[in-house]
């Protein structure tokens, strides 16, 4: 039985390139994700003798944002030193909810996850926070 592998790239052009290179453009199918900008590519592959069904998609930049609570968001709303202890809210912005839904739906059917990141410092932190 093939293992389903979800591959997530940082941008659509990288997802397309990764899928094309790994599949050698043979037997690859493509379909729309929930976001019209983030397509889903699928093909069969082998990793270390293990048959895999590869699913490749992307995000468009960072999926999540960090914000202070509303009471801390205006320039003169507090002493800047208070921001060191202010609560921070992590959320997916409205314009990226479709990408989040695609990832959730695809992840439910996959056993492995591969992240195709460009190795920026902030990406290393983001990758460690994946739960």
From TrEMBL:
Keyword DNA-binding carried by entry: yes
GO biological process: DNA recombination; DNA repair; DNA topological change
Domain spans labelled Toprim: 4-131
Keyword Isomerase listed: yes
Entry keywords, A to Z: DNA-binding, Isomerase, Topoisomerase
Pfam families given in the database record: Toprim
GO CC terms, sorted: nucleus; RecQ family helicase-topoisomerase III complex
Molecular function in Gene Ontology: DNA binding; DNA topoisomerase type I (single strand cut, ATP-independent) activity
Enzyme class: isomerase
Catalytic reaction list: ATP-independent breakage of single-stranded DNA, followed by passage and rejoining
Enzyme Commission code: 5.6.2.1
The organism's place on the tree of life at top rank: Eukaryota
Reported function: Introduces a single-strand break via transesterification at a target site in duplex DNA. Releases the supercoiling and torsional tension of DNA introduced during the DNA replication and transcription by transiently cleaving and rejoining one strand of the DNA duplex. The scissile phosphodiester is attacked by the catalytic tyrosine of the enzyme, resulting in the formation of a DNA-(5'-phosphotyrosyl)-enzyme intermediate and the expulsion of a 3'-OH DNA strand.
Family: Belongs to the type IA topoisomerase family.
Protein name, entry field: DNA topoisomerase
Organism per entry: Acorus calamus (Sweet flag)
């Amino acid at each position: 039985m093939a293992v389903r592998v979800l591959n997530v790239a940082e941008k659509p052009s990288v997802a397309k390139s990764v899928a094309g290179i790994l599949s050698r453009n043979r037997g690859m199918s493509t379909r729309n994700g929930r976001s019209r900008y983030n397509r889903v590519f699928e093909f069969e592959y082998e990793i270390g003798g293990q048959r895999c069904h590869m699913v490749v998609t992307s995000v468009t930049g960072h999926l999540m944002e960090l914000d202070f609570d509303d009471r801390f968001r205006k320039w003169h709303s507090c002493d800047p030193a208070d921001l060191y202890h202010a609560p921070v809210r992590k959320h997916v912005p409205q314009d990226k909810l479709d990408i989040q839904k695609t990832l959730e739906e695809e992840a439910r059917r996959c056993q492995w996850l591969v992240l195709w990141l460009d190795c920026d410092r902030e990406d290393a932190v983001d990758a460690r926070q994946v739960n």
